[in-house]
Amino acid sequence: MRLILSQCLANLSVRFLMNRNSYNKIAHLWNVARNGFFGREREYLDAILSVAPIGSTILDLGCGTGRPMAEYIVSRGRCVLGVDQSEEMLRLARQKLPHEQWVLSSIESYEPVEGYHGALLWDSLFHIRRTEHELIVSKVVRGLPSGGRLMLTVGGSAHPEFTDFMYGEEFYYDSNTPQETETFLQRLSCRMVIGEYMNLPDGGRDKGRYAIVAEKI
Ligand SMILES: C[S@@+](CC[C@H](N)C(=O)[O-])C[C@H]1O[C@@H](n2cnc3c(N)ncnc32)[C@H](O)[C@@H]1O
């Protein structure tokens, strides 16, 4: 029993450290690559901001360098509370947007406190074990006001957890399917505003990516 528990804890810290170390190493490359919106990202973000008053705060879990999401949010008169596990990503975010709040934390251990009017889990949830997704999203939804919106991405197909390489570094991925994610969002009293593929799975390396904007009822 003790052995199983210690193996689980070891796996957990390997996953966590792998992604944190890898993102620290590629932060500057990520920052350069993320110099604009991909697909309809800006429209998803507009759907979040359309129900968030000017001056309100948007929670961004797995914020990266704040580019382009936080930059756009601030340019539209809202504030950002960004959370990320990577010191390097946050250093670049702070450099660009020194007046916003940047918190070094894992998403899993972060406890959102009410006061934000929209939330992002953009391309970050799929770096966490799928069994934890509903709990994480439930905490985010709990802190949203009724009518507040959340945007997130999940993997686009049913697939076991895996690792893959980006800029020569290894990353861990896991995801519920889009349908499973929409089902638990409904369980959490959210209605779907947008649910669509950003890219379809190609049956090989690309497992697809699915965008969701959901509103707390
Ligand atoms: C693919 S990048 C996306 C960054 C940003 N959301 C964007 O749209 O460009 C994933 C980000 O999530 C962060 N991240 C991944 N897993 C995390 C975790 N468990 N806790 C906190 N941050 C995490 C990474 O450090 C990285 O900055």
TrEMBL record:
Superkingdom to which the source organism belongs: Bacteria
Gene Ontology biological-process entries: methylation
InterPro entries (UniProt xref): Methyltransf_25, SAM-dependent_MTases_sf
The UniProt record lists the keyword Transferase: yes
Single GO molecular function: methyltransferase activity
Domain Methyltransferase, chain residue ranges per copy: 58-148
Keywords: Methyltransferase, Transferase
Alphabetical list of PANTHER family matching this protein: TRANS-ACONITATE 2-METHYLTRANSFERASE, TRANS-ACONITATE 2-METHYLTRANSFERASE-RELATED
Protein name: SAM (And some other nucleotide) binding motif
Organism in which the protein naturally occurs: Nitrosomonas europaea (strain ATCC 19718 / CIP 103999 / KCTC 2705 / NBRC 14298)
